Amino acid sequence: MKRVILLTLLLALGSFGLIYSQSVPSTGDGALPCRLNCPNNGWMGAWKSSVNKAGGEFPWSGAPLPAPPSNPVGADGGKYFVTAYSSNTIEMGATAQMTGLIPGRKYTVKCYMMSSRAQLESGMSDYGEQGKIETIGGFAFVNFTSGGPFGSNVNQWIEATFKFTALYDKQTLGFIPETNTEKGGFVNLDLRGDWLTAEPCNAGTAQVNVNATINNVCPANTADLTTAITGPVPQNASVVWYNTPDHTGVPVIPGTAGAGTYYAFFYDSANGCYNTENSTAKVTVAVGPCCKAGTAQAQVSSTLSNVCPATTANLADAVTGPVPQGASVVWYATPNHSGVPVIPGTAPAGTYYAFFYDSQNDCYNTANSTATVTVTINSCQPTCGAGSQPVPLKAVQSKILCPATTVNLITEFHGGIKSPNIQLRFFTNPNHTGTPISDPNVGEGTYYAFYYDPANSCYNQNVSTAKVTVGYQKCADVTPTVQINALNFNPGVSRDFVVNLYEVNGGSTTGTVTLKISKLGGFTISYSPLSEISQVFGGTQNENGRWSFSEDANFITATSFEPIPANGQATIGFKLTRKAGALKGLSQNITATVVGGSGGELNSENNLTVTTISTN
After folding, report:
1. Which CATH superfamily hosts domain 478-615?
2. Which residue from 56, 373, 471, 525 has the least number of CB within 10 angstroms?
3. How do residues 168-192 score in pLDDT, each as one tens digit?
4. Which CATH class for the 3-198 domain?
């Protein structure tokens, strides 16, 4: 088993510092080349080398090597760089701290790597096979064995670049060599401090121009913060609001801000950055009392008639729009609410005016109502067979479940027994205007139920209160992927891998989801029944505790305890170990298959993924 000398990389170190100017130690900084007890120049665990000697002790093959691109001209033919050694039993690594990062901001790291060999005390080493540089959220590597015969790209600096999104204001940058030979080999790293760069931020650095105080506009008891903005907004940025001057916590919905103090920021969503970490664009919202009746006219039907056997009309049936919270509808025979209010449930023939009234503050919505209703009283002979009660419902809402596309309004919602001479009708409006729905098998929407007496051409209600809502649930579609750090295995090597199951159609799975992993002749696949960290790409949290596992001669089967949410994912971790008798050059496939129909899905064309692994 390979002995790790230094590769415990703390890839994410949080900090409470708020000074943001990103930096990383240059590999060429510090004292002369050294191998042991090197002075701290910001890079831990590595040698410092020149173009002539590795660690200042071991002559390079082909010396002098090319000078590092970060400082190609120096007194000794080039400044210094970091060197790390690796073999099939030993692996060195180096780490440095990136500081001054802004969490959520995107950054780019550029560096150069070079494979070299040196004359050691035990003889000439091999060339390094691969170099990798990484942090949490991103990595880059140079493979010195690809692109032609081995050795065709050694002793030359090769650029490597990657991007990442910062999670902390300090993060560890790791440098890892890889050489799977007995003699081992060297990989060199050249990185200048200003090669850590932040993506441009469209939010700029200027403070947002705002009015210091705004008020609510009645009848609302909240204010719209957007009305406080007085200056321009940078292109490709927007204004967001927080309760804190350092944009911590949850953003405030600007259109419904209650009394309090708020801070404005320019925000670039594409690059995840703000104009400032300390906003002085402060707005105070002052909320005063309002008449809950508002100022809008009541929405009413212009005409109304009695519902037999009653010989008067109920004015409440004429109200078609919403009533402000904290107010009620009152009726007068005059447009200026003079005189005595009309009792709405027993209105004789005549013209009536509707008002919203706030009894707590003794105020009306208007002094001149235009919400007029003309009541006519019809003879009540004969009696309408549809009655006057709402259609009884056994449910008021339902969802069409995939793969169905319709639901039957009658069987799904009707909860009563009707006379054979009375029809059950559904409309898409509460006033039974237009044509009733001819086919009760409908898609998503809102529908209103009525009883209808065809003999007397009458309905049970002028305005239906039997309202039902039909929604739609999409089908789930689950597809797998496999992630593993490397595909080649030396004797006795074990390596974690994870299977990610993605729901890609916007529908949560229903029932169980079943995954099958094919067993391999040259490798052993194992797993833990507990949720743990799988060592994949710097550490990936698996969800094994939510799955049950079983095995037979050919497969490992994992079955979910919980559904995968719409557009969500599940991660299952496994360990792959090369068997003792596996021959060199063996190539086999990890096959991960989502069993057709799992979780209620219909599409099986994307249910399989194959990853090829081999032995060295």
Report:
1. ntegrin, alpha v. Chain A, domain 3 (2.60.40.1510)
2. 471
3. 999 999 999 999 999 999 999 999 9
4. mainly beta
